[in-house]
Amino acid sequence: MLRHAGNNIGGPEREDISVEKQGMPLKNSNLVASSTLTKFYSVPSVFITCTLLIFVISTLLFLHSSPQFHSTSLIFQSSLRTPDEFIRVYVAELPRPLNYGLLEEYWSSAYVDSRASSDPDHELGKANFPKSLKYPPYPDNPLIKQYSAEYWILGDLMTPQELRKGSFAKRVNTAEEADVIFVPFFATLSAEMQLGMDKAKFRKKESNEDYRRQREVVNLVRSSEAWKRSGGRDHVFVLTDPVAMWHVREEIAPAILLVVDFGGWYRLDSKSPLNGNSSDMIQHTQVSLLKDVIVPYTYLLPRLHLSENQRRHTLLYFKGAKHRHRGGIIREKLWELLVNEPGVVMEEGFPNATGRQQSIKGMRTSEFCLHPAGDTPTSCRLFDAIESLCIPVIVSDNIELPFEGMLDYSEFSVFVSFADALTPRWLLSHLRSFSNEQKDRFRGRMSEIQQTFEYDSGHKGGMGPIPRDGAVNHIWRKVYQKVPMIREAIVREKRKPPGVTIPLRCHCT
């Protein structure tokens, strides 16, 4: 069971169960040894044994001196994964109103999300939602649900250890024994509640409840001994919403950030061309694939299994907003090129309560699903397409995708540059060039990796065993890969002479 300090979430567990293994002595060990020695110490046996020893030692010395063998063995060792491998995670202590208490506030409030045409949570009756639940559900509002990673990651860590046999993350009782420290703040929910209630105040600090919560989290975390020891480099924040923790990003920049892409961390200058280079970018703060982890959106449409797949009549399908900002300008250009083409369906809207069935039908009856940039390079549309076995057509010159290195997206997706996509008739001609065998192979591979993007454990409150091959475990495996680099950075920081400053990390890919 877990211990909660007052109304705080995090800290050590109540008990730490350990199992000691005891060895059993061999019976008649002296008799076995005596018999073996008598047989072994004959002259021929000694000669053969010495010859073998000389050969083995010579071979080991040769291989050890060979650079090729040395590098190959390192690569081999780094790829090995033992069954008992895991990442040790300590959950920082934060007041309950910054996580599950925030959900209670959401469900008990009477406001309707001003950005959505319909609010499924309001229609269910927020004011009548049971207040006795210790771990309330995450919102069904698709504008918020698509960012629900924070809920499922914390839910796994809050599950009693005896139910977490399939979890790659092992919760530990102290920060000192942890590989990383998880900060249990529902940053996305906080931001989305502010945007839904009063979007005009979001960029301001005055009368902004989201900023108040951001400031409370940063003050608590940065004042802890764990942060001071590492400079925050081993702390983990979930920031799936591109605007989460907007006002305090500079202060948490050294930490490990779980983000859906880097689009919310850079913006193109309004006077820059469509394909603006790095010199046109205004940096909010620095993010890097060296330390941060790209995580998937939560998909919104139900999974289609390969055995349920039927004949698809449409070549290319897209449903989404036509007009977007920054990099999403390409949407308007693609819309103009494709909207009247035969075999193409272009629909405006979002897969919310009113457009859900339309989206399901569109993706399940189309060979390819278009995935151009919006306000940021990625969206939940990509993962809806994968769950619908609709081959993603990713239009981007530079995009970050979840779990690369574990997954090869070229095995089930089509990648297209901006220049090719905007060349009249090129895109449709390219898609028609794929044979039925190629498309079946793409869908077959998609069916194999659909589970990779599954967050939902199927248990109330997010508590309970998680999918072993699902999104939460993949995220922790990715964080685990960062641990050696994090430890090195902490050591390097310790030996830095007083008064010396080192620039923040570059944007490395």
UniProtKB/TrEMBL annotation:
Residues 85-429 form the Exostosin GT47 domain. This is Exostosin GT47 domain-containing protein. InterPro entries: Exostosin, Exostosin_GT47. The chain crosses the membrane at residues 40-63. The keyword ATP-binding does not apply. One of its GO terms (molecular function) is glycosyltransferase activity. It comes from Trapa incisa. It is found in: Golgi apparatus membrane. It is a single-pass type II membrane protein. Belongs to the glycosyltransferase 47 family. One of its GO terms (cellular component) is Golgi membrane. Keywords: Glycosyltransferase, Golgi apparatus, Membrane, Signal-anchor, Transferase, Transmembrane, Transmembrane helix. It holds the Pfam family Exostosin_GT47. Signal peptide: none annotated. The keyword Glycosyltransferase applies.
